[in-house]
From TrEMBL:
GO molecular function ontology, one term from the record: iron ion binding
Pfam families xref list: Rieske, Ring_hydroxyl_A
Domain of life, per lineage: Bacteria
Name the record gives this protein: Blr3400 protein
Keywords: 2Fe-2S, Iron, Iron-sulfur, Metal-binding, Oxidoreductase
Gene3D superfamilies hit by this protein: Naphthalene 1,2-dioxygenase Alpha Subunit, Chain A, domain 1, Rieske [2Fe-2S] iron-sulphur domain
Length: 453
């Protein structure tokens, strides 16, 4: 069946044809609109990458679990009785029924399949099977089902952030992320206790577009003053008209006002790129730089870290950090956005807010407000982006031009998989992402083709 499908497919598992979709400063429209490319991403790109699963604070007690998806693969993470965290494929080894269908919960001392009541310890090992005598003398003990829930072998927990790689071989966690983990480190260090906590469900809503459009947009600094002029721009005008003699800028205006910053602001702010498609805006300055101080917070940080280190931590105000393939982290406001691919033209977005443990409540309030104002379907500016994504998804069906241009501040051949600080309006981070896309899409294709043959 696989051979028949490949024979009818446009790309099959031709690594050269797929790599050719990405030029130095252009990408072919098929990377956004071709259902076959999307399925190949699910089969190759996501299993070869390190993908965010969840946060350890969501698994506070033994028996706590969360569910997630890596590509097409449903996974399940749980806290065992000894405090350890395990990640499994979310399917019963008997008939394949999903063990957990809820986003999160507490299963108690064991998981129980809702179909035939096979049960498993929270470390995934098989606990009990009804009518077990029926398996005596059948060779069941030598089967994979006897081992319990299939374990995801490559799991790393960094500062309580859980990442997994489904592929048995590939780039190590340390080599995959490298220096880019400094954004997560900074976000965690902003807690006087060096800890984050998830206290609420995320904002979730569907986008009618390809997932990569959202990832690109996180480091696109040439759109805010254009796409958000009618929303954030109007809100700023209203505030200026109504503020009267007030010298205090409301938190809401502090959050959406900077979206109207001019090109020059973003140019000078800079972008840092890292290997494997990671990068961030806001190197020297960002839209998060000028929020009002929260009383008592700096004193807490100085007490915890010392004056010099406290100022270093709080002085890092990166805007958006992209962790390839599909999450964005805002360390300064403790938000993570997960862009979950559903179909070639459908993406579920989850926007998570983290509480800085031990920090003043006002910081958590600000983070929650930012999430509602910017990332919700009812937000001030989020619907502007959604409109652009949907228009792009429709426009890319046009046969007038099959290539998407990413040539801004392109200076000829660019060295790949490097760390560099560049002009803040450059499209090089987008080019960096697509280099990583081609790399992780094709890195195992030759091996899989040989195995199929």
């Amino acid at each position: 069946m696989r051979e028949a499908r490949d024979a009818m497919a446009k790309y099959g598992r031709d690594a050269h044809a797929i790599a050719a979709l990405v030029r130095e400063a252009e990408v072919h429209r098929d990377v956004y609109v071709d259902p076959e490319i999307f399925e190949l991403e699910m089969e190759h790109l996501f299993p070869n990458s390190w993908v965010y699963v969840g946060h350890a604070s969501q698994l506070a007690k033994p028996g706590d679990f969360i569910t997630a998806t890596i590509g097409r693969q449903p996974v399940l993470a749980s806290r065992h009785t000894d405090g350890s965290i395990h990640v499994f494929y979310n399917r019963c080894p008997h008939k394949g029924v999903k063990i957990a269908s809820e986003p999160c919960g507490n299963t108690g001392k064991f998981f129980r399949c809702p179909y035939h009541a096979w049960s498993f310890k929270t470390d995934g090992s098989l606990l009990a099977i009804p009518l077990k005598k029926g398996y005596e003398g059948t060779g069941f003990g030598d089967t994979q089902a006897n081992e319990g829930l299939s374990r995801v072998k490559n799991v790393v927990i960094h500062r309580d952030f859980i990442f997994a790689r489904l592929s048995d071989s590939g780039v190590s966690f340390e080599d995959y992320f490298g220096e880019s983990l400094s954004t997560i480190d900074n976000m965690v260090d902003r807690s006087p206790e060096g800890k984050l906590a998830v206290l609420a469900t995320p904002i979730r809503y569907m986008h009618t577009c390809n997932w990569k459009m959202l990832v690109e947009n996180q480091t696109d600094t040439c759109h805010p003053m254009v796409a958000h002029e009618s929303s954030a721009g109007t809100a700023v005008k209203v505030w200026k008209r109504e503020q009267g003699d007030s010298t205090e800028t409301p938190m809401a205006v502090q959050l959406y006002g900077p979206f109207m910053s001019p090109y020059e602001f973003y140019e000078q702010s800079g972008i840092r790129i890292w290997p494997n498609g990671h990068g961030h805006t806001g190197v020297a300055n960002s839209i998060h730089s000028n929020y009002s101080d929260v009383p008592g917070y700096l004193d807490q940080m100085v007490a915890a870290y010392g004056e010099k280190r406290a100022h270093e931590i709080l002085g890092e105000v990166r805007h958006n950090t992209v962790y390839f393939p599909n999450i964005m982290v805002k360390g300064a406001v403790q938000i993570l956005r997960n862009f979950i691919p559903i179909a070639v033209d459908k993406t579920l977005v989850e926007s998570w807010v983290y509480r800085l443990v031990g920090a003043p409540d006002k910081l958590y309030e600000r983070a929650l407000m930012y999430n509602r104002f910017i990332n919700a379907p009812t937000s001030i500016v989020g619907h502007d982006d959604l409109e652009m994504y949907e228009r792009a998804q429709e426009g890319l069906k046009s046969n007038g031009n099959q290539w998407v241009n990413l040539r801004r501040l392109y200076e000829g051949h660019e060295e790949q998989d490097v760390t560099a600080v560049i002009n803040g309006t450059s499209e090089r981070q987008m080019r960096n992402q697509f280099h990583a896309w081609a790399k992780f899409m094709t890195m195992d294709m030759d091996k899989r083709v040989e195995a199929a043959e």
